Amino acid sequence: MSSDLDRWMPRHPVVLAITGASGAPYAVRLLQALVALRVPTWLIVSGHGWRLLQTESEIGDLETLRVQVESGGTPGSFASVVTVFDDTDRGAPPASGSARTSGMVVCPCSMGTVSAIAHGTSRSLVERAADVALKERRKLILVPRETPLSLIHLENLTAVTRAGATVIPAAPGFYHKPAGISDLVDFMVARILDHLDIEHDVGRRWGSIPGE
C-alpha cells in the first residue's frame, strides 16, 4: 500500500449516486473504499436505490448504511467524509456546475437512469448531477447491470459514451481467480476507482496474480 503522503486524493468531492439496478454490494463496497481512503463524497440515493439496498443488502436507512460502511473501519469516518443529498432536491450543490467536483459515479446505474442521462431530461438530482458532469466535461462513470441488453439500451449507452461518459458494466472478470463474491465485487470497485484516478489497494492487479 502507498503511504498517505504518496497517495493522490481528489481536491473536490466525488459524487456517488445509487439507483435501482441490481448491484447494491458494488455501491456499498465503493462507498466503503471512498470513506476508507478519506475521499470527500457527495452521496445521492434514489428512491429505487433505497429499495435496492434494502432488498440486496438489508440496508433500509442511512444509519444502517453508515454502520455497514464503517464496519471494520473507524467510527465516525462516514460523517466526516460523506455528505448526503436528497434525490428530490434539484437545488442541491451537485445540481450546479459552479459547485466543483472531481467527477461522478452512478453505481449501480439503472437503464431508466441511463436513458434520462442520454436524453438530458434531468428529472431528479441524480440525473441533473450527471447532466452537470457532462456539460462541465467532468468524469462521469456509469455502472449498468442489465442483461440481455435491448437495442434501446445499447443506443442509450452509445449516446452517453459519445457525450463523454465512461460505461463500466458490472461484469467482473475471473482471471484473478476469485475465492468468493467479495473478490468479484472488489474487481469492479477497483476498476471504478482507477477511472476516478484514485490510488488504492482494492483487489489484485494483473501481474500480481500467481500463474500469470
From TrEMBL:
Region forming the signal peptide: none
Protein residues bound to dimethylallyl phosphate: Y175, R191
Domain of life: Bacteria
InterPro entries: Flavin_trans-like, Flavoprotein, UbiX-like
HAMAP family referenced in this protein's UniProt entry, alphabetically: ubiX_pad (MF_01984)
UniProt keyword list: Flavoprotein, FMN, Lyase, Prenyltransferase, Transferase
Listed Pfam families: Flavoprotein
Function: Flavin prenyltransferase that catalyzes the synthesis of the prenylated FMN cofactor (prenyl-FMN) for 4-hydroxy-3-polyprenylbenzoic acid decarboxylase UbiD. The prenyltransferase is metal-independent and links a dimethylallyl moiety from dimethylallyl monophosphate (DMAP) to the flavin N5 and C6 atoms of FMN.
Primary enzyme class: transferase
Coiled coil: none
Protein's organism: Gemmatimonas aurantiaca (strain DSM 14586 / JCM 11422 / NBRC 100505 / T-27)
Positions that bind FMN: G20, A21, S22, S46, S110, M111, G112, T113, R145
GO molecular function, a single term: carboxy-lyase activity
Reaction equations catalysed: dimethylallyl phosphate + FMNH2 = prenylated FMNH2 + phosphate
Keyword Transferase attached: yes
Gene it is expressed from: ubiX
Designated name of the protein: Flavin prenyltransferase UbiX
Ranges for domain Flavoprotein: 14-196
NCBIfam families, sorted: PRK06029.1, ubiX_pad
Protein family: Belongs to the UbiX/PAD1 family.
Listed EC numbers: 2.5.1.129
